[in-house]
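Batch manifest, entry 17 of 40.
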Amino acid sequence: MIPVSRRAVALATILATTIFSAWAHPHVFIDSTLEFEMQSEECVGIWVAWTFDVVFSADIIGQFDADLDGRFNASENEKVRMQAFSNLRKYGYFTFLRKGDKRSYPETVDGFQASQSDGRVTYRFHLPLEGKGLDGDFSVATFDSTFYCASRYSQEPARITWLGQKASRQPVISIVSNKEYPVYYNPAGGAGDSRVYTKMEKGLQTAYPEEIRVSFE
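Output type: structure tokens
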């Protein structure tokens, strides 16, 4: 167990600078919720909410809630975004998108907002996905392939918000352990290895994160 005095340094490192593959077990725990923005049967965006464990939350609150008022004002929120979130672009924001046998990950986010409640910090942010081909039947996984962060889906793991036209078919949301389309990771990656692997290469290993699947019937 990393002492609390060192956790702040380690956790700031994971989210603000780089991820060390030697830390091959979870140190941060995330409850994830997804809100799918749909236009007919196309997903044009996803709002992601991560609620962190109390230890990581305490570090974020201690570092960034400067006035200790129980909220992150605009200035504090921007510091959280820049210093404890923005680097996750190197890791696809821990989000794997799948359509058929094709995996990808988001390259940009917007609308980042950090909040706190009952001693736990939540990050909420938006993935713009219009034109990315997520329609009809697709899947999304929240997963950190470095294994530094462990994620699980919250009690209400996903919901749909309609933007414009609703689909003519009924959407179905399910959580699926997919054994056909793995995520790849490099167990020997060095401190500077920030690649998110979407296909098998020499030396990689496989993991099978649970996916949230959206389909229509």
